[in-house]
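Q: I have 338 residues here and want to know how they pack in 3D. Can you give me a structure?
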Amino acid sequence: MTIHKLSPQPEECAKTFGGYEAVLRVKSGDIIEIQAPDCFGNQLTSPEQVASEVVNPEMVDAVVGPIYVEGAEAGDILAVHFISLTPLGKYAVSASYPGFGALNVTDETALLTTPLPERNWFYELDLEHWTAKYRARNSDFEVVLPLEPMQGTIGVAPGGGEARAVVVPHKHGGNMDSPELRAGTTAYFPVSVAGALLGLGDGHARQGEGEIIGAGLECAMKTVIAVEVIKNQSIDWPRFENDDFIMTTGSVRGLDDAFRVSQKEMVNWVSELTSLDTLDALQLVSQIDLAPVANMVDPNFTMVSKVPKKFLNGKADVVYGGIHAQLKKIGEAYKTMR
């Protein structure tokens, strides 16, 4: 078992998917331990700070990488299994930030009113009890929330020589902000360039579906992943899998089109797995599908279609040759070593 480590400083992180030389080369089956700064580049250190005055916008959501995965070629699939995600430090921060949020004024949601006021919330993290404490800023209300660490941003380089800003999710992945990207999930990405050039960042100690204020519980994160190249198969959009569900994504604007992309991807995937024709697959998905909103705040919105494996008569138990189970075993072996 080969284990690699990456722990760059915020200024060493990549600001785009594509356009950067690889900082690490790995092979299928390798494990990478990544320590990534929070989405603000670790620049918010006090609730009294004004985010727009102290945060360099070029550092927002910067990612660790890119990581070159040997053997990955355009037309392949890169599988990334999340072994563990552990918040680093004693607090996480969320914020009302200019230009972000489903209920805020943005350039693309143009209103004749002012943006929401800026405000920061610092959450105390208790890793022993796996909790975060919310405290209201303008009253004495507080509540303890369970930690549910997730990866806000992960993706590969797009094709055609493009460099995509990390905050814009699309076919390559990016800032999808899906709570499904957590320990135990395997994510699949369409490879468009040699080596795939994987990057990740934007760890959240937890986040509600939709991320409506524009920020989760943002924190520096130690993320441990295992990677595998899947040859002779291809996908158009990122897909996820865990022990109980297969999931498809769509990241465009508006939300209705993101929904349609994710649902079309799921209908086609179920059709492929079960040999149902398109209409039969559409009927089945229509009755068993869940449709969580991943984000409604980024330049592109992200929707997820989520189908329980148990309703597919075993046809989803060996997706891509059972790579999810194989990577899970690698993860379990890694954990026994720690």
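Q: Anything worth noting?
A: The mean pLDDT is 95. Residues 250 and 258 are 5 Å apart (CA to CA).
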